[in-house]
Design goal:
Bound molecules: zinc ion, fe (iii) ion
Distance between the termini: 49 Å
Mean pLDDT: 93
Radius of gyration: 27 Å
CATH superfamily of the domain at 186-358: DHBP synthase
Largest sheet: 11 strands, mixed
Low-confidence stretches: none
CATH topology of the domain at 186-358: DHBP synthase
Oligomer: single chain
Number of strands: 31
Amino acid sequence: MERRAIDVHGTVQGVGFRPFVHALATRLGLAGFVTNTGSAVSIEIEGDRDALNAFERDLRTSAPTLAHIESVTVRSVAPVGEPGFQIAVSRTAGVVALSIPADVATCAACLVELFDPTDRRYRYPFTTCSDCGPRLTIVTGAPYDRAQTTMVGFAMCDACRREYTNPSDRRFHAETIACPACGPRLQALDPSRRVVDGDPLAVAAALIRAGGIVALKGLGGFHLACDAANSDSVAALRTRKHRDEKPFAIMLRDLHAVRDLCAVSDRECELLASPARPIVLLRRRTPRSAEIAPSVAPDVDRLGVMLPYTPTHHLLVDLIGDRPLVMTSGNRSDEPIATDNDDARSRLAGIADLFLVHDRAIHVRCDDSVVEDMGSSTLFVRRSRGYVPAPVRLPVEIDEPVLAVGGQLKNTFAIARGHHAYLSHHIGDLDDLRALAAYERDIELFQSLLAVRPQVIAYDLHPDYASTRLALESDARVRVAVQHHHAHVASCIAEHGLDGPVIGIAWDGAGWGTDECVWGGEFLVGDCRRVERAAHLRYVPLPGGDRATREPWRMAFSHALDAGIDPFVAVPASIPKAAASIVRQMIERGTNAPLASSVGRLFDAVASFAGVRHISTYEGQAAMQLQALASERGDTGTYEFDVEPGTPRRVDTRPLIRAIVADVVAGRAPSVIARRFHSTLAAAAVRVCEDIRTARRLNTVVLTGGVFANAVLSVEVTRRLACEGFEVYRHRTVPPGDGGLSLGQLAVAAAVMKEGR
Ligand code: ZN
Ligand code: ZN
Ligand code: FE
């Protein structure tokens, strides 16, 4: 007889790991116990040597699909001779690892039960098992046990208890176990909060088919749903939600429906059907998918598509039949999505005709993730539900925990402990007080889940970010200010575990520069510890600051003036001359016209010159339209540009602006201009990188910043650089935009701390 103590680290809680261990031990006739310790699953196992060896082997090779084993440690202990094998009560002492898995889409086995009239969970909208269901969104503490979730208030019925305690059942120790007798329930409420009679799902489905709008409580928040083929419904949703043109995501019943509407690759199908069930940006089939109202996603070539991921979704699409559903976040314009029933009813009053709610509370707000397939890698536009809180592995182990507070827009925060960076779900724009409150609360939650209180805090240099204020007001021992684009570059370096200096191309809308100008067209050379600004786009004034971001014509005006062209020629008829005169004064007097090297704003200027868009109704709209136009064309050559020598070098945009205006005057199609502009940026990137390579002997390039969420540009820059022999890295785990900033801040802080010792 031998006895071994085995610790298993990784994502091993909430994934059916203890039941799996129990089943394995029982099958091999072994005695002992298994328990969650918070930081690991701990096993003590006793029996003869062959059986113990078989146990150790199978532990690694046949673990549940959702489990991710990072390490297994084994030591011998003295046999105690207990009779059988048990799952022991969780022990929470000691260091806690955040081994809580992300929320998981309904699994195949649960789906079968959902539509089986003889099953006791037939059409039950909260059917889950050890392999699927809510996880992070219902967690209130660690370790992952029913008592530390919002399921705590639902006492199991006898039938559920039997499954929960039966080692051979799929729901053995499934913490989210529930059934119609004991679990959460759906309710349909009208806008005046009265319960609507009848089956809530049938009521909702009928309303959607009749053209109504339903607020639907999901995993991480409320959605607003309506018939995507009904242009009146979509128009009503836009008006009520105050969302003019920003694309809505849609939900389709299955992959067949997706293939009818969009051109999809095998990889895209895999992403759509993965347990994370993100929104996948897909190319529509031409002619523009007639089954979808044009107002769902006006003027862009991608459609955000997802498949059902909760039993409620499955039941709803089943009742609605082959109609596509708009499934957009349950909020008014840019607020955070509603999660609480009362909050939803007050905030979505006047938008939804019906509320489909339930009594399982959402503790962590978690938006849908958004991804795009880039052929060899996945581009994360937003990394949230289904992916968070899976950690990103850091290239070096850090000695003490670090908190990175992220940026201001598309905020995520991150905590580093040991070898791992835990990035938060998408918090959103911290300008919003609700988002800010959730931000502070969720930082607390992550700290308690990880059982750390970081004394090192990393933040952006921008003095007006709410995240910066939080960092400066904290009582952390060490505060590390990180320049915005340095953080972007470090984020990509950390993600790929790169060693040594790189050329970092960091292109985005805006970030605070060390010279207090607005940066956003940067070539930085260095590593996580420090960077040097090797080159940047020529500075032009940003007339009106934030307003210039919303009004692309202002950037066209500014660039025209800069390039020595009569700027009034570029002003569209829709803009009053007086407004243009004020902009001219701002620029000439330098009042409220900070200098900017932003590629994002250059996109705006070009969109306005090309007549594509003069006023944006959502962030990045002009650039997305240019991208859509560019993808309609093959190669159309490049425009002129200059790289001026010096430290730093400057990419002169004036020849480019003059050539674009000449193309406009010559009546060239906007798609040709858009394509040439993309190619010009790519060519400029290559030219500058070649200069840097000659001077610094560097051959590795990372592409980062929100501009690289533009797949057309990202692919072309990568291709052109690779042709010249550069080794090119782009983001594949975290977003290139500000959602990935917190990872970079962590990496910089870790490097600073390391050097400080
Ligand atoms: Zn399941
Ligand atoms: Zn039950
Ligand atoms: Fe940025």
